[in-house]
Amino acid sequence: MKVLIAGANGYIGTRLIPVLLQKGHEVVCLVRDKRRFTEKSDFSAQVTLITGDLLHKDSIEAFPPDMDAAFYLVHSMAQSNDFSDLEALSAQNFIASAQETNCRQIIYLSGITNDENLSTHLKSRRNVEDVLQTGRAALIVLRAAIIIGSGSASFEIIRDLTEKLPVMTVPRWVNTRCQPIAIRDVLFYLENVLLNPKTFGQTYDIGGPDILTFKQMMLTYAEVRGQKRYMITLPFLSPKISSYWLYFVTSISYPLAQSLVNSMKNETVCRDRQIHEIIPHQCISYAEALHLAFEKIEQNSIVSSWKDALNTGYLHPEFMDQVKVPQNGTKEYKVKIPFQRKTEAVVDNIWAIGGERGWYYWDWIWNIRGFLDKMVGGVGIRRGRTSNTDVSPGNTIDFWRVLLADKNSKRLLLYAEMKLPGEAWLEFKIIERGGKKFISQVATFRPNGLWGRLYWAAMFPFHIFIFNGMAKRIIAFGSSKNQKSASLN
User: Any idea what the Cα angle at residue 168 is, between residues 164 and 174, rounded to 5°?
Assistant: First the structure.
């Protein structure tokens, strides 16, 4: 069967592709930029790619006329405060394209909307269901609450809050009940409703066996991790204060924090259990889902992360256009240092930069810069990275986005997502010439007016120390005599 995935680069879509390929389906991926998918995906040679931004109808390539079914895994919640309008427009453009094909089924992963007085976020999910219902193809809606898996937004938020705050003052919404579900169970249902005629035109709630409050989820997380955590509920914390609290403690953007806090007043518990009659399945518990997530993290095998999605509100979807670093109207600081170590060891150190490894030199300065960025509404440094050793275009590394990660040419190119009066690139490259080896490190800044130039002038003295020290430590890190000093700075 020929199956299209809208949202193929997203958290769910990335994990669904191998599941469908393993079942022998012909997979078509709708992506905004083929370059990003080709660079990051191990399956790029096994799928058909078509391009299109669902918010811009004219950009969408024609869907295959002979496709049998489509998964709609798109959302715009973190892009702006007008995400409801954006989500409706995206769904309308998707249906318009699907109408030109022989598609028999559309599968939409929505949110549980059984509560009264739904939040803007959950109302938007329900509205998207209504839009998708207008198409000729039979619509199947799977409604899920919190999805738990390595790299999922919900898991990372719970992880941030519980790991960083031994004692928490929490708002009332921590006592709201929900029914979390493991990512593997979500994928099971997505796979098994595909062209299953018994599910055509149906809407199902899906959830794990546990019904928990947000407080219970954090305490269970702490128990799984062998930690003691204490929570003090403060009933006077407003949604706005709660949003700022979530924004500063976790790695999510403020618009996303706002949307999530407003949604947390709604219970997201399954009422409809009919799917168990059609597709019998025993979902794993919340604690088991946490254990599995940490297994993936410890094995460095996180398949996808919500932080790598481009709907986080910090970067334009056409970010790959920035791969060519501009030469005119820019400021540069270059470092070029020879080295004797094995090239592979130095490249591995470059590929491991940021996240748990840190920035090799004056890490405290990077942390301060991340804190200041968070204070002015930026992404901050808390996002870390999906894998400690591997990077692909589109991945995040703290407050940078990976544009290019080519081990063959030994080049890593990062684009800044922090708040800046201009644009910034950071490039690492290994140069081998005349029997000698050098690490090249270039910081490029394109200032925006006078404020941009003043910013570069103010930062330049720091660049002299930071970038030279960083290049030297990248070369030395991991060698027996430099391991300790490299890891302490």
Answer: 110
Rounded Cα–Cα distance for residues 19 and 47 (Å):
13
Top-ranked range on mean pLDDT: pick from 292-296, 351-355, 369-373? 351-355
Q: Which of 250, 239, 255, 104 is nearest to 165 (CA)?
A: 250
- Count CA within 13 A, CB hemisphere, residue 76: 20
**Which tokens is 51 given?**
């391009």
H helices, E strands: number in the chain: 15, 19
Dist. CA 81–CA 248, nearest whole Å? 19
How would you classify residue 449: left for phi > 0, otherwise alpha for psi between -120 and 50, otherwise beta? left
Q: Which of 367, 114, 369 is nearest to 126 (CA)?
A: 114
Q: Residue 444 and residue 440: Cα distance in Å, rounded?
A: 13
**For residue 477, what are its two tokens?**
């890190």
Ramachandran class of 438: left when φ > 0, alpha when ψ lies in -120 to 50, beta otherwise: beta
Q: Which two tokens stand for residue 101?
A: 């094909």
So what's the pLDDT on residue 303?
62
Phi, psi of 70 (to 5 degrees): -145, 140
Higher pLDDT, 43 or 95: 95
Q: What share of the chain is helix, strand, coil (3-state, %, to 5)?
A: 40, 20, 40
What is the C-alpha to C-alpha distance for residues 372 and 368, in angstroms, rounded to an integer? 6
The rounded mean pLDDT for the chain is 86
Helix (H, G, I), strand (E, B) or coil at 444: strand
- Residue-by-residue DSSP string for 311-342: TSSSS-TTGGGGGS---TT-EEEEEEEE--S-
User: In the chain, what is the straight-line distance between the N-terminal and C-terminal CA atoms, in Å?
Assistant: 54
Q: Which of 367, 370, 264, 252 is nearest to 313 (CA)?
A: 252
User: pTM for the full model?
Assistant: 0.77
User: What H or E segment, with its residue span, contains residue 486?
Assistant: helix 483-487
Section 229-248 average pLDDT? 79
3-state secondary structure (DSSP) of residue 21: helix
Most confident of 21-35, 148-162, 336-350, 467-481: 336-350
Q: 163-217 pLDDT, tens per residue? A: 888 888 888 878 899 999 999 999 999 999 999 999 999 999 999 999 999 999 9
